[in-house]
Known about the structure:
mainly alpha
Amino acid sequence: MKKTLLKRILLASSLAVSITYLSAGTASAQTAIVYGQGNQLKSCYNAALIPSQMASSIERCDKALANDMVPKRHKAHILVNRGILFQANGDYAKAYDDYQRALELNANLPEAYANRGIIYFLMNRNDLALLDYDRALAGGSAFESRVRLNRAMALMDAGRAAEAKAEYQLAQQATENKEGVRQKWASFMAEREGV
């Protein structure tokens, strides 16, 4: 049930959250965070925007990672991008490995924590998911509302309903897209209750 839910809710949330291109210190887009600058990083990002190009997107990220001219800090961003692609493709082990490697290269990547938190949530490790969501928020995630919504889901699964509802309210406050957050929460709750 949890995998179905996340493919429907978090995948949309994750890709919307993760596919964000950061260049010269500015952010644009939504949830799944795609980082980087330079042609290879842009190529990896742009290919990721088209679902039918998933395999070529991963190949482009692989090429960028293999390039010795790409600085270490950019490789961390590419690993987050590729992890998102693996996650969208249902390969959670590879996604986790990429987020982990990205954090080993740069422990200050809030979106790597946010996305790794989703993997922990899928593994029913709500304790670890909550820690990563907290790290993402403390690190200044550009996607506060999405991280808070994911955090609310983990709290609910952990049996902490009052905290989950409070976190859901914070997710609502952190976005202009209140209806989108409401719909994702309603879908999560319906799926959870088996409706």
